Amino acid sequence: MEEASNKRRTREHLQQKYQSGEKIAVLTCYDATFANVLEKAGIDILLVGDSLGNVIQGKPDTLSVSLEDMLYHTTCVARSTHKAFIIADMPFGTFQVSPQETFTHAARLLAAGAQMVKIEGGRHMAETVDFLTNRGIPVCAHIGLTPQSLHQLGGYKLQGKKTEDAQRLREDAMALQEAGTAMLVMEMMPATLAGEITQRLSIPTIGIGAGSICSGQVLVLHDMLGIYPGKPPRFVRNFLQDTNSIHSAVEAYVQAVRSGMFPANEHAF
Ligand SMILES: Nc1nc(=O)c2c([nH]1)NC[C@@H]1CN(c3ccc(C(=O)N[C@@H](CCC(=O)O)C(=O)O)cc3)CN21
Ligand SMILES: CC(C)C(=O)C(=O)O
Ligand SMILES: [Mg+2]
């Protein structure tokens, strides 16, 4: 019934999927043509990620992606879709200063067509999540490997390996949920830790390099098509190599996420 509907997906649709135990399939998307393919292939959520700094702009990291960049790509994705749920990343520097300033920036992303914004960070972002949530802006939080903290973390590395780091991530997740977070991305964390957090929370979790127990999965589109240059991270699977079109590759991804076939142990930590 839901799949037949031509209306824009809402948080209620996602909540229904989450409660029925159906896995949520997410991919990043930055432009109109791919957005159209992804929507037709049944992707639940299109994430306009700040990974566009790497993938679209050819930068070494996401740190210099601007709000204007995010607004432009969010507009492209929103304009060309009619039912996909769209989340936009808040880029580095636009959500750290104050909840008030963050609201102003997040409101622009919603005006550009996003239904939810994503913010990197743990318990220290709880106040901002609370502020936005109470003023009409749903927030997805992002913990574990938070690429915007590259220089703080010392590289794109697995997070939560030490007992005390794992405990901090558990507490971050609880604090963010408490503050009203609608969804939680967990990146590059041990599968057992991400699974434990998922079972403890009452909001959907979306994993990337966080094992198969999460409520859903996300990958960077160009990674799962095998066209991003360089050695892909361990959590990436190339879905294009066994099919003959991008549409089929994306359908295979949706199917693999829904059936629990992706991620396999080889993609997890
Ligand atoms: N194309 C692309 N894909 C991504 O997943 C991605 C981006 N860009 N840009 C922003 C961040 C950066 N991310 C990254 C980048 C590198 C690794 C990586 O090299 N992982 C290694 C392990 C490194 C280690 O533990 O020391 C791996 O083999 O998984 C992981 C995530 C995830 N995000
Ligand atoms: C990989 C996902 C979670 C992301 O934040 C991005 O694409 O920017
Ligand atoms: Mg991002």
From TrEMBL:
3-methyl-2-oxobutanoate binds at residues 50-51, 89, 118. One of its GO terms (cellular component) is cytoplasm. Binds 1 Mg(2+) ion per subunit. Gene3D superfamilies: Phosphoenolpyruvate-binding domains. InterPro entries: Pantoate_hydroxy_MeTrfase (IPR003700), Pyrv/PenolPyrv_kinase-like_dom (IPR015813), Pyrv_kinase-like_dom_sf (IPR040442). It is found in: Cytoplasm. It is an enzyme of class 2 (transferase). Its EC number is 2.1.2.11. Pathway: Cofactor biosynthesis; (R)-pantothenate biosynthesis; (R)-pantoate from 3-methyl-2-oxobutanoate: step 1/2. This is 3-methyl-2-oxobutanoate hydroxymethyltransferase. It comes from Nitrosomonas mobilis. The gene is panB.
